[in-house]
Amino acid sequence: MTEKYLICEDSLEGVFTGIYDAYALREGHVHNHIQIGEEENLRLFASYLYIRPDCVKTKKVAETIQKRLGTEVYYSICRALATQDAGKGQAVYQTVVDGITNGYGRRVLEHLTNPFVELLFRLSRNAANEIHHLLEFVRFEELRQGILYSKIGPKCNVVSFLMPHFADRLPLENFVIYDEKRDLYGVHPAGGEWYLVSGLEEPVGESAPRSEKEEAYRELFTMFCQTIAIRERKNLKLQQQMLPLRFQEYMVEFVKK
Amino acid sequence: MELRISPSMSLMEKLNILGDAAKYDVSCSSSGSSRAGDGKGIGNTVKAGLCHSFAADGRCISLLKILFTNECIFDCKYCMNRKSNDVPRASFTPDEVCELTIEFYRRNYIEGLFLSSGILYSPDYTMELICQTLYKLRTVHRFQGYIHVKAIPGAAPELVSKAGFLADRMSVNLELATADGLQQLAPNKHRKTILKPMKLIQNGIAQNKDELVLYRNAPRFCEAGQSTQMIVGAIPESDYQIMSVAESLYQKFSLKRVYYSAFVNVNEDKELPALPGGPPLLREHRLYQADFLLRFYDFTVGELLTQERPYFNMLIDPKADWAVRHLELFPVEVNRADYQLLLRIPGVGVKSAKRIVAARRFGPLTFEDLKKIGVVLKRALYFITCRGRMMYPTKLEEDYIVRNLTYQKEKYPFSPDGMRYEQMSLFS
Ligand code: SF4
Question: What is the complex's ipTM, to 2 decimals?
Fold first, then answer.
């Protein structure tokens, strides 16, 4: 039997549509591969299907996963898809198969002896760690109009995981989280619902003037962070282990102005 | 008492003094409360807590940890703010504390406020100021983030309980494990005035739980519970004494956390140890490890230490130390042992134990599986079998295992040069 490669777009819609189409082939799942983006070296004796994201199919797959595998598994899948791992599509697909077709159901993530489940589990955990870190390390700066603006450069595509947390926390604020690696904005209007925007002509927050007191609070906090350390316990290695440099780059208390 | 502060002092100067003065309180946890925002103010809380930054000593910065004032009428020997010290003094106003909290919180610098204080004029006067501040923060500013507040020993019960309704967590520091120790180092404090508010807070929490059963919307009292702190190494108290006190605080006062603080001789007081090698960080680390064993691994202090063996082994951690003294129980077959026994294997944490129990339902686990699950095999291998086999042929012998475990570099949460072994032998 020939190996089939379903080439999907790098998004939740892309992969879910791929899963839908893979099931629709009705040829079992052993020879199907969900692959994200083109492969450079085409394989001989393999056939390639190009999958166009489809929102009806996506919705069906999302609902089936939630119903059969539960919301925990569903969120783990979403998080795994936020990573950049090339194998994530296949890991999600085979985990869904293991859960639905092989009958592991809601416990599928415990089936760690299945290498695809194990990969999914690991990816989901990586993304969860980065999300957790950013809930802590995101720093907002106040722009002149009172808007809170934050720039991040995460490894995973996490803005949509951060927004609900801050929307609940700062409901009366206008705020923006900007992922500079993906050119993606999460926008929250005061008192409203948050949404995502991308493809703006020019970045909005970077050059905007800061509010009058912004500098003062930044200095107050930077000083506070320095004073709070106990000299006799100084340990920069531990500090860096807890707070990797790639985050420090974006944090007011570490950036020299 | 004369207020020795100049009114013209800037917020920067005040924060500098009052942040510095608060730093020896080690708790910075923002955990234990889980509260969504109501949409009309600012803030929420997250059950596991969040750490917003890390200081140069590697400790987490979660809360704006400050004293309301560093004025103090007491003279505790270990404290920088004691009456007899000539240090710059400052006091915030309630509005200043609110401003800093809100502005830091909006920028996601912090998870909330940790407000402690020296004693200005009297315990009641101070506690009143603290309550005023929290009340403003909660009502005028509609702040719904995390608040940890100290109960001032000796303050009126009404004031302590008022603060409890405004805070997520309260704490009263026990300071020293023994009443004698306290009398020696904190002549103005008494064991009684510390345990009284502790009891009061405990009762407040218990009562509140009952009320919440009846009325879901009853106001919350210290949702995140109560904690305390003991200083380690300022006087000759043994690990056994310290841990036994901690155990009974957990059991009798239902504390959420006990913190241990390696003594730093800030006052260079001649009656206190000079600590040329720095604070006793390794000892503090062992106490935290043992504290974990009490809270999450079902150990009792009696299993770890005894009157005859009152100090922890500095070479290996308390769990490994327990295991090598109980080799008759090992090796344990990972595919069969119950959860409680899995927890006792060095190299197996709470998470891995849970994952083992879940994963082995699908079939027997191999060493490779254990590794993926997160078991630290190089520690566990002396104590386990997988499908009846050990990972390598190894001797089940105390000396041999201890030697091997100590060869592995233990990861300390502090730098090795900040630690001297002479320090450890000071009291042992
Ligand atoms: S009561 Fe004692 S420990 Fe507290 S501030 Fe005053 S002197 Fe320091």
Answer: 0.91
